[in-house]
Amino acid sequence: MPLKILFIGDVVGSPGRKIVSQLLPRLIHRWELGLVICNAENAAGGSGLTIKCHEELVEAGVDVFTLGDHVYRKDEVFTLFERSDRLLRPANFPLDSPGEEAVVVPAKDGTMVGVFTLLGRTFMRPVDCTLRAADRVLDRLLPLAKVVVVDIHAEATSDKQLLGRYLDGRVSAVLGTHTHVVTADERILPRGTAYQTDVGMTGPHDSILGRRYDRVLAANLSFVPHYFEVATGDPRLNGALLEVDPATGEALSIKRIAIDQDEALKLMTNSA
């Protein structure tokens, strides 16, 4: 039987956490998910991760968390790193940076799954080479897990596409995060790696990347700094649903997931 993995795109603020809490337990049952991975670096007020937000998402059914450029925005994350090895900072950060760079965890069927995240280099903070960091991490993970999922948290689509091609045939999936805008290019690359440039945002889509657009507009019109509050309208869960051969790690399928509030209500009603 193929292993089914759900990767949830950037969870933004309380609207993102709420729709995950509402939907994920039902999706785990309905889709027979073996593992759930979630990018949660914007879960707390739109930037960073707190203990409370982490607990909400764990309770909903998230197994592994990836983080990105906002990894250290909340001080509570350092306590979380001490408590859990399933919370990942980018693997191309300095080696002595707080947090785990990769993890191998068992899926529900016992399949061992490796997970790590990398930060892009274009228009982002200075970090080590994504390609060399991936090589180094895979040297450690591949003897332990045939199935490996990589989160590439990057601004430039070229950074993401390059990593997908570089790792094609060596990992099960390369999935992009960070831009909060879902792309329609999900596919299986020639050597068997599932790829999507950006899996999108889980949070309020009546917004500018999850923030109130009136605040963003005012700041751009006046150059006066404004606090970009998390928006509330049109919450959606975006992500990617993978089917992977647990024996080889080869991706069998990838499906783009986009569930708005109307569909969420139908799913909750039908599951009641």
What does this structure look like?
- It is built from 7 helices and 13 strands.
- The two termini are 28 Å apart.
- The chain has 272 residues and is an alpha/beta fold.
- The mean pLDDT is 96.
- The strands form 2 sheets. Strands 1, 2, 3, 4, 11, 12 and 13 form a 7-stranded mixed β-sheet that branches.
- It has helices spanning 13-30, 51-60, 76-83, 130-141, 157-167, 213-222, 261-271; strands spanning 3-8, 35-39, 64-66, 87-88, 102-106, 112-119, 147-153, 173-177, 187-188, 194-196, 203-204, 235-244, 251-259.
Q: What class do helices, strands and sheet pairing give?
A: alpha/beta
Strand content: 15-25%
The helix/strand order is EHEHEHEEEHEHEEEEHEEH
Work out the number of β strands: 13
Span from first to last CA?
Answer: 28 Å
Q: Counting H and I runs of at least 4 residues, what is the number of helices?
A: 7
Query: What is the radius of gyration computed over CA atoms, rounded to a whole number of angstroms?
Result: 17 Å
- Which residues form runs of ≥5 with pLDDT under 50? none
The shape is globular
| Biggest beta sheet attributes | 7 strands, mixed
Please tell me the overall pLDDT.
96
Instruction: Work out the helicity level.
Output: 25-40%
SSE topology sketch:
Blueprint: E1 3-8, H1 13-30, E2 35-39, H2 51-60, E3 64-66, H3 76-83, E4 87-88, E5 102-106, E6 112-119, H4 130-141, E7 147-153, H5 157-167, E8 173-177, E9 187-188, E10 194-196, E11 203-204, H6 213-222, E12 235-244, E13 251-259, H7 261-271
Parallel strand pairs: 1-2, 2-3, 3-4, 6-7, 7-8, 8-10
Antiparallel strand pairs: 1-12, 5-6, 9-10, 11-12, 12-13
Helix pairs in contact: 1-2, 1-7
